[in-house]
User: What shape does this take?
Amino acid sequence: MSEHDRRAIDPVEPTREPAPDSTGQATSTAPAQVESRALWAGGIAAVVGLAVGLVGFDGFRPPLWGERSVALFAAATSGLAAGAGFVAGYLQTIRGTHAWLAARPLLRQIVDGAALVVVHAAIAVMTSLVAFRVFQDAFYGLTVDSYGGGGMLALVAGIAAYAAYDSGARINAASLSLLLAVFMAAGMLVSMLAAENRLWWHIMFSELGTGAAGMTSFWTFNTTLTTSGIVLTTLSAFVTRDLSRWAHTRDAHDAASGRTSRRWLRPRAGVVRWCLIGVGLCMVGIGLVTLHASEPVHTFFVQLLAVILLVLLLGIPFWAPGYPRPFYVFTYVSTAMLAGAAFLWYPLQYYNLTALELAAAGIVFSWLVVFIRNTTAVTGTAAAPGQAGTRPLTRP
Assistant: This one.
């Protein structure tokens, strides 16, 4: 294939081939560089964590959980390590694999970057707290000295920095969707566990964000919703780019084979983009305008989110044609499950509104993860870190 034909197949961004070495074989050091730098990040964070433990636990034996415990120090050190590690890895990827991210408006870059940092730091914090709570229950009454505590902080900080750096350097639509689902689930779980009013679920899910269930639950719930909405708008940029590349590829293949381009079968990246952005903005609105602040506005965002989701789900064969048939079956099964969940709430009154909200959230985020993973598979955009281009799959 000539250079001109190759550019025609992928007009958005040509694929870069790894340069051959002295033996004539292609080499790609980008994945190895990511692992090397991630290990350095983890090592530096581990040293810092050890120092924090030696100083912070000097002169007393802290428990694994409780006041001035290893858990609290681990949550702080792992959160900071994860945030710093992600920033370092993310800066690498926007200079290579996803250089297009740096071409967006500066304000958008700052907001998206801050939201992603919060996601990684929050996951590290929540994981540390849960892990040490479990270990304290398993080893009841255990206390450690400054060396043991420092070693534990070194371990959690090192793992957090390593994993976050790797996540930032290898970020793509599939990994970001899974990260979003984990963050959303963990944040909601923590807000439920932290609720001071144990009967909050008798009302609705938004009760967690009113302050009536306690300030910890209030801040966790609303911060999770707001941050998740921002991350979803970031995710829409990845999905839009993947679908746009694929649409150009399909058109180029049709032109090269002499077939008439069927416009109604062309992926509509713009519709998918605005649907995802709309859902994200509604989540931000729900988190910022709480139920007790303005019930009509809060309810409006909830209802608008439901309408946008229905448009996206029911029209997905038109917005994203050419996907595997099982994906469309899964989409309509998910839609039917949403309708069934609503029917069980009203008119059957089998359960209350909180159960409906939990069921709907689980179904929607499961579908979103599957949709993003199918998009990555169909468009072939899982590039190696550090490479500026990706090789789209041929037209199905």
